[in-house]
# Entry
Amino acid sequence: MKVDTLVKNGLVVSPFAGTRQLDIAITDGKIFALLQHSSGVDALEVIDAEGKYLLPGIIDPHVHYGLGSTDDYNSETAAAAIGGVTTVGNFLMNPEPYEDHFDAERQKGEDSSHVDFFFHFTVMNEHHISHIGDYIKMGVPTFKYFMSYKGEEGLYIGVTGGDDGLMYEFFQELGKYPEASTAVHTENIEVVWRLRKRLQEAGEDGLIAWDESRPSFVEADDLYTACYFARLTGARIYVVHISSSEAMDVVRYQKKLYNGISVETCPHYLTHTRDTKLGLLGKVNPPLRSQGDLESLWKEVLGGAVDVVGSDHNSRRREKKIGNIWQASAGFPGTSTLLPVLLSEGVHKRGMTFSRVVELTSYNPAKIFKLYPKKGSLNVGSDADITIVDLTLERKVDPSNLGSFSDYSLYEGKILKGWPIRTMVRGRTIMKDGEIVEGKGYGRFISR
# Structure
């Protein structure tokens, strides 16, 4: 048997079969065979993964490129590869017709990306709604809706304000297409406006004030509305960045009534609270919550109620985190530490199985976002996207080694145990031992 690449002696992890020692034969960028013995295989390249774990390439379906740097497809996909991520889902946010900008954006990505990528279109107006079917034909069946951006709230990142009536019409249209879904940001901004004004007038500042201005009940309130509208219309929704136990209570109940709901949380809600000493670096929407919320979310992650862990990555720099809590930008980088956090905090500290890690970071996002079985699997015929992990490797987080345009990390100075040591995209090594070894432009847009 002649193949391009043979990855041998590795421990292959799947969400169903557990962990097995298998050799992976790769040809033309795809998995050609899974072998218990590969003595008869003739490979141009042999990678000995002795004692290391082989995961289906990590999928981060929640990234925001262009908010920090105009070169994000280069720097941020490099950061992704350093973190073992082989595929990213970028949210495009433009009030203009997406059909007018799609080709240019796709080309921009393919010119610069190190890993494969797909798009979500943010829906902001009637034109977007009327072209849902066209966007699906373009290979983009997933969308975004910000319930939190009404009035001028979202203009700073280019999102025009909507209302619940617009969202209902969007869901009605979306419900006509069973292959489509929408990521929904749920925060009742009308309540936030009043709470925020009161806190500002009282001179409150810091992460605790930020949490008090956007408390968990405003997340849960809009979440109930989104789930109810989804049930009424048949729309499939993906609830992004769940941050609180109160919101998870709504999710568990709504999932019993309707199977078209998926839910994501993010690493920062599993590791940091509003009491962290990070200061303005920790500002994010929804806010960091209490220790009780953190522990509750871990319970849901380990127990299966959470479907995906995504990063909500953006590449803003420290200079955007200045002033007081009301002035600083929200959000931070996270793609490159997504997997190490789950390995260190989940597998090592809380007994999470490797199979569950694969479910949360590869198999489930691949199924939800219509990437499977091309992505999210180490089965024969799938893309040879492989993340090779050294579960025993300890590394102190240093932002200068993470590849991002951003110059800080929430985990800076923290030792995480369990890191990817090789990232392979369609059979080609992109990252080895923390270094990018493949030039930009290898990544490809994925039409779904």
